[in-house]
Amino acid sequence: MKNALILAGLLVLTSLAVFGQGYTTQPTDALVFPVGVAGTVYEDMELGVQGGTLTIATIEDPKGWNDMVAHETSTTAITSRQHRGLVNLDHISGALVPDLAKSWDISDDSLVITFHLREGLMWSDGEPITADDVVFTYNDLLLNLDVDTNARDGQLLPDDTYPVCAKVDDYTVSFTMSVIFRPALNSLSFAIMPEHVLAQYVHKLNPAVPVGTFNEAWTLATPLTDLVGNGPYIVTGYQPNVSITMSRNPYYYGYDPAGTQLPYYDTFVSSIVSNSDVSMLKFRNGEIDVYALRPEDIAILLPEGATKGFQVMISDDPGYGTTWFLINQDIGLADGTEAGKREIYRNVKFREAMALCIDKQTMIDNVFNGLAGPQWSPVSVPSPFYAGRDVYGGPITENSAVIFEYDPAKAAGLLDEIGVIDADGDGWRDLPNGDPLTMEMNSNDNTIRIASCLILQDDWRAIGLNATFQVVDFNTLVDRLFGSTGDLIYLGLTGGDEPNGGSNVYNSCGSLHAYRYSACDEPDEIDLRIDELLGLGAGTFDLDEAFGYYTEYQQLLSAQLGYVYTVVGSFQYAYYNYVGNAFKSSTTSTPSGNNGLLTELVFDKRL
Amino acid sequence: MLTYIIRRTVYMLPLLLVVSLISFTLIKIMPGDYLTSARMNPQVTEETLQAQIQRFGLDRSFIVQYGLWLKNIVQHGDFGTSFDTKMPVYKALFLGNKLGWTVFIALSTLILTYLFAIPIGIYSATHQYKPSDHIITFFGFLGLSIPNFFFALVLLWILVVVFKVGDHGLSVGGVMDLHYYGASFSWGKFVNILWHMWPVWVVIGTSGMAGLIRLMRANLLDTLSLPYVKTARAKGLKERVVVYKHAVRNAINPLVTILGLTLPALVSGSVVVAIVLNLPTVGRSYFSALQRQDEPVIMAGLLFFSLFLLIGNVLADFLLAWVDPRIRYD
Predict the structure, then answer these.
(1) Which residues of B touch A64 (CB under 8 A)?
(2) Residues of A in contact with B167 (CB under 8 A)
(3) Which of B 84-143 lie inside 8 A of A, CB atoms?
(4) Given CB atoms, is B44 within the 8 Å cutoff of chain A?
């Protein structure tokens, strides 16, 4: 009995070490989500109650708990619930909104951004959150070359410098830029880390530890009681290959209008299920509450929903990211071969013929079961800068998009015009010099990409282009992409709201300018204009002005058909009826992350 | 016997060295490396990539990389740090209780497989060409030919869709319900583990069992036709004594040899089943490392599986000596 009492005492102490008591009253500067408030994007949502456990499925184990060195979504899906930044994208509207900062000012010359932090906030262990934490995160972690983070690249200004971060007072920090660069504001959404916990692992602050120690801080082997965050949840349980349990952070600063502290769910469990078929079975078995479904699941889940008490949520809007094939305009350039092919690949009429042959509707119907949309631009469709809108953030009309509707007859005519005809009568079109034209398309072992490529292959063969398709290992594919070898490559890239985020791909000297690397040394007028427009769009805080630059940039790129865009899947998931507010999907998170859920606002209706 | 153990252990070392060299070469021949996916990220600059290449030592020559890896093991017993999880590789492979679960799943499946396979094989041999023998043979071949991952999926589907086990609060996959992890041992936990383990035993067990049944049947049939069995019968011994005391003891030797070889196969060969059935095993850590080309973990994993294979071989030799007094290793 005595031992049991000691054990119970230790457990209480341990839990106190992890979490403080929480706020006794709502902080004055709390972040209030306007749930149910008319005139806001949250107006049709319900006020919830605290309690319960939400279980979702995730496909992989995280690689650590350290958000700063996280490189992939299985980790950031977890750490993004544990850490928040100065600003964030609104879950529903996608607009940039205050988060840890309550507001920001931009100086008259647009070179200084000053953030005003919410006052009186605490880390999950009860220590205050101040400007020192922001300065530590930026100067000692993000800009520290010893720290293995990809977030640093997002801060780089066009003149290869970084904004200078300085503390103004305990609750004010400023970022001074050498050139005007609007995307810098978005990239200041990086997670703020607790200085009082992590400074000890940084060599420049604590020379007693070796260089690079921070990269090995907060690994999966770290005791979970060491983790401290400012997000809605903190990791409190981890079973490798089984599950991650996150518990409510008593010091999270989000509240609903009724004064209830968020998040509503006490516990957020991510069940690690590596096989998607098993994930679906677990959802149907009632083991997981929300499931990010695949197109092929719709036919099974839709009829079952009414009897089992779940809903299938299908969003009409395509998600972020781009899917494309590229025609390698530098083929054979390195070894001086394939001159005939290279010449024809560089002819925009040939690329247009290839684009006109894409039967996107068949792809959408057969591959995505109708749950996808066509894509015409390098900018993701949900972005407010997408050229298919008439104004910044306006509805999608596709008026300004450069569209290549399915027209095989016109494609055949273009090929005839440039001399790509069947010269030897074997049924396949040849190069203008009479050599046979055979093209191999490659993609990796991904069922949706394979099905899409087979449709493309059939479309091209129908007008006499001898195209074949071959699945190759992903790494081989990437090697071919960077080595500028191979004919056609079918792949996809991630995307976001800010078009400048793709400058590494579309700038003529970008490391992913894979359709024509030679453009860096021999840029044509269009390449130079694209480079210029990317800079102009990022160099103004006037969003309408930026929209104008970015629209021209998208039109030029789309017409050039370096990357030829195909279709992108829309967003869908299924949830049990007892999960409140799940009907509203987040536009800023991916199915692999939070299953589209508004993490803070979903609640258990049964309570 | 002691000399034999020492000799076998010493032989293991050069063998493991060769295995490591071949493995390292294969990893390097594979297209791409750990940073390939980072290259496809539009947000990652060339400078960051180069810094990471240097940090992971991927810019060094093959020989230097291998030499450093070997030197660290010999000098410091350091198998390296996982590129992916930044943990020492032994933690990346075994974190949680993965080694424990791996050994438990492998051994329990092995024991159950033999417990069922030997009697069924004997029954099948002693009832040759009778309907029951044909039925056993049919199911044996069925078990042998169904891919394990598919069988596992079908089994889960039957439980969820046909038997609707969720309506009774039962979950599928894994080794126990989520809330039992970390909970102290109880009767409820024990029953829950049994509920989760039986599909594992059925899926992994049946594929191995089918082969063993066929082997036991064939061996016993061969033995039963030998002259000494006829002599035993002619002496008027009961059929039970002839079969179990004289024939089975001789027919079982090849199965004992296979016992040692089956153990490593169960550890490394059930990766796909572990993924489908959500089992926390070392194989899954290894598979994940393979997918992400996390070289230090792949190398350590290969050595671990090789060691298991060698131990399995030695174990088979010992067991054979134990069941067959004619065999001596000195």
Answers:
(1) 85-86
(2) 286
(3) 84-87, 91, 95-96, 98
(4) yes
| The pLDDT of residue A596 | 58
The DSSP call for residue B184 is: P
Among B160, B164, B200, B275, the strongest candidate for a mutation testing the A interface, having the largest count of A CBs within 10 A, is B160
Which residue is listed with tokens 């960077």?
A482
pLDDT in tens, B189-218: 999 999 999 999 999 888 788 888 888 999
Residue B154 backbone dihedrals phi, psi, to 5 degrees? -60, -40
Summarize pLDDT for A388-417 with one digit per residue, the tens: 999 998 888 888 889 999 999 999 999 999
Closest by alpha carbon to A317, among A375, A379, A380, A382? Answer: A382
Burial A60-94 (b: 16+ CB within 10 A, else e): bbbbbbbbbbbbbbbbbbbbbbbbbbbbbbbbbeb
Closest C-alpha among A382, A367, A242, A241 to residue A294? A367
Across the range A308-312, mean pLDDT stands at: 91
pTM, rounded to two decimals: 0.85
Query: Sorting pLDDT into bands at 50, 70 and 90, what band is A195?
Result: very high
DSSP 8-state class, residue A192? P
CB contact under 8 A, B41 and A156: no
By the 10 Å C-beta count (0-12 exposed, 13-18 middle, 19+ buried), A142 is classed as: buried
| Per-residue 3-state assignment (H helix, E strand, C coil) for A533-563 | HHHHHHCCCCHHHHHHHHHHHHHHHHHHCCE
Helix spans in A463-587 (H): 474-483, 503-506, 525-538, 543-560
Please provide the average confidence, as pLDDT, over all residues in chain B. 85
